[in-house]
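User: Here's a structure from my thesis project, written as structure tokens. My advisor, Dr. K., wants to see whether a designed sequence matches the one we expressed. Can you design one independently, without my sequence as a hint?
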């Protein structure tokens, strides 16, 4: 092990976090280091977005939060429990993970059975599992409950995968690129769903996103992931308006921030909008549109 792989612990602070990825490094069998000295926390009832270019370590981090991957160095603590091989089933009850590749999450003969699988696996009765599955499928708007999952479109498969995790009623939902293959209306549905999980159910959501505009609209906190570690974190109105930071991490400003600067709203001392709707009302306030 290289000397800089030593377990050095994260900087102090954030003791009230519900997830603490404490200075974790993970190397894949081929020698690639997926994450390195990764420090990351999740707090109660927040939506935290992981933004970073391809290969920066978002999925590797995410798979550590429910114990799908275990650290080579460091530790991961979830609701006070250090993840190890003996408590994985307890961890997976608390942390629901929707993979980047939804297809790999579906395996039952029908959509309904697929979504019932998780609750049944948690020991629920068939009636209770069916009730939860029907609820979750309704929430994501899937009606094709008797279809073979692999015959669904990519976007529909993603919605079923999300339903499968929701049906287990996790305390933390971790979703890896949830809207990549969804049409605009389903992407908005998922965005609204993540928001309502936080607001109405008090669930914390971790979401890896390439869509910087969605990150601006949705997240309470943004973590910029680069080279296997979190290089910056903070409020969307700070991080997503820092062009130099984003550029150096291989990212771009969200459109809403780009327009804000192009319209000279920064020079007018205007507040930083996080959605197009906000931006338009700001433009109205400043007399740029009627
Ligand atoms: N199974 C694997 N075996 C070897 N290396 C891997 C494996 N999975 C990921 N990696 C490597 O680990 C690093 C982090 O990859 P990861 O998938 O976590 O990135 P990511 O930020 O999720 O990227 P993307 O935005 O493309 O989904 C990359 O260098 C990648 O090549
Ligand atoms: Mg990924």
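Assistant: Designed independently from the structure alone:
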């Amino acid at each position: 092990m290289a000397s800089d792989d030593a377990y050095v612990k994260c900087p102090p602070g954030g003791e009230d976090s519900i997830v603490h990825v404490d200075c974790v490094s993970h190397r894949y069998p081929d020698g690639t280091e997926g994450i390195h000295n990764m420090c990351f926390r999740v707090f109660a009832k927040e939506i935290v977005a992981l933004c970073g270019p391809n290969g920066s370590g978002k999925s590797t981090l995410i798979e550590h939060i429910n114990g799908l991957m275990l650290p080579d160095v460091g530790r991961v603590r979830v609701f006070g429990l250090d993840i190890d091989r003996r408590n994985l089933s307890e961890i997976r009850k608390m942390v629901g993970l929707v993979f980047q590749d939804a297809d790999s999450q579906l395996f039952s003969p029908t959509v309904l059975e697929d979504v019932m699988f998780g609750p049944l696996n948690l020991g629920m009765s068939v009636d209770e599992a069916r009730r939860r599955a029907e609820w979750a499928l309704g929430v994501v708007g899937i009606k094709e409950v008797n279809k073979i999952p692999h015959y669904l479109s990519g976007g529909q498969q993603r919605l079923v995968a999300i339903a499968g995790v929701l049906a287990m009623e996790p305390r933390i939902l971790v979703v890896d690129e949830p809207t990549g293959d969804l049409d605009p209306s389903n992407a908005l549905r998922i965005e609204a769903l993540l928001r309502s999980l936080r607001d109405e159910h008090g669930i914390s959501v971790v979401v890896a996103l390439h869509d910087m505009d969605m990150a601006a609209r949705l997240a309470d906190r943004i973590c910029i992931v680069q080279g296997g570690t979190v290089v910056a974190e903070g409020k969307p109105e700070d991080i997503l308006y820092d062009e130099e930071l984003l550029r150096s991490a291989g990212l771009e400003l969200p459109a809403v921030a780009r327009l804000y600067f192009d319209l000279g709203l920064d020079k007018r001392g205007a507040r930083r909008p996080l959605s197009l709707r906000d931006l338009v009302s700001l433009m109205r306030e400043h007399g740029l549109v009627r």
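When you compare it with your expressed construct, this may help: The chain has eleven helices and ten strands.
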